[in-house]
Amino acid sequence: MFLSVKEMEIRKVRFDETVPPGKIDYSRADVRQISPLVAVGSAVMVENAEGEVHITGKFKVDLEADCDRCLGRASFPIESAFDLFYMPAPSAKPEHHHRSPREEEIELDEGESEVGFYEGSGLELNDVLLEQILLALPMQRICKEDCLGICPVCGRNRNETSCSCREKPADDRWKALRDLK
Ligand SMILES: [Zn+2]
Ligand SMILES: [Zn+2]
Question: Domains of the chain: which residue ranges?
């Protein structure tokens, strides 16, 4: 959905969107969308602020990635709210390439309130949502809290098969130290 500034000049623009998987490109973050993305909110012009736009809302989506430890499937639901301000991009800039809102964002105070820029006649809601989803991604993507990962010695997935490998390199180093004495 396109959030048109012209429309915001007349009224509050509300959105209640359901974006199916495949519409947003998550390749930057190596995640896959596995449920519809549901987003509800509104966009308004900030009074007396020369084109500044205020977008608030919340969203919910299930994502999937490769587990950091075992490369199996790690799925995680994300639910978050946002409260964002966008200013018109300075018009002197050449418009030869499209910028997503986030790329020109300036962080004001500790990420609490951020101001981004938009070009032309408004913002694509999906771009705004993608930035918010990327910000909400967990640092660690694991299939389960106690994922055992892959054995560094034999390469087996230790969640599926237990192996009796010992991590010898560490032992050898201690032995070498002991031998020095
Ligand atoms: Zn795992
Ligand atoms: Zn092993």
Answer: 2-146, 148-181
